[in-house]
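Our platform keeps sequence and structure together, in a single record for each protein. Nothing more is needed to write down the fold, since each code stands for a local backbone conformation. An entry from our holdings is shown next, in its original layout:
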Amino acid sequence: MANNTSLEIRAGYFALCLKYSGSEWSCSGDVTRLVQRLQPAQDPANLIWHAANFKDTIVFYGLILADVALLVVAIGILMSFPGWHKEIDDDGSERDVKAFPSRHLSYIATLLSIFASILALLSMLWQHVASVTFVTNVENMTYLLAKGQVGAVGLSLGWLAVGAMVLGSTGLVVMILSIRLLDRLTDD
């Protein structure tokens, strides 16, 4: 608040954190515990309730957990791909050979990775739009007496993770297409 009150509230996936007038941060998943530490005059616009409502009804981490689970399975499949081994040529010389991975496992890993990338994109877009909308609504609701900010570092890390997932999915698609092309070239 812009008056003499200096209340800072941070809403996360699992808890709310409050800081009032230079005091230390106090965090809890239970909003009533946080509200009991303050006087009613310290939160005249009832911003703690709005932040708790945002945390409980808007912020959803289920898609992120699904992304992680799908990626763990895809990485487990990728770890089963064959590695390098030595073979003896017809003339008796040794050479390093890497066998192609199973096509079915490659397709499954690629589909899991693409699906996880789509879920991550949807989740990050949902969180980004919801956060910006909530901050704008709180500022407008309090006639700009309350100042809101969206966590730029958190959002940028989330978008970087989505970019990395898309890059990994693209790499798997390129690998499948390259193996398919090599198969065609060696069959002729």
Remarks:
- The first helix runs from residue 31 to 36.
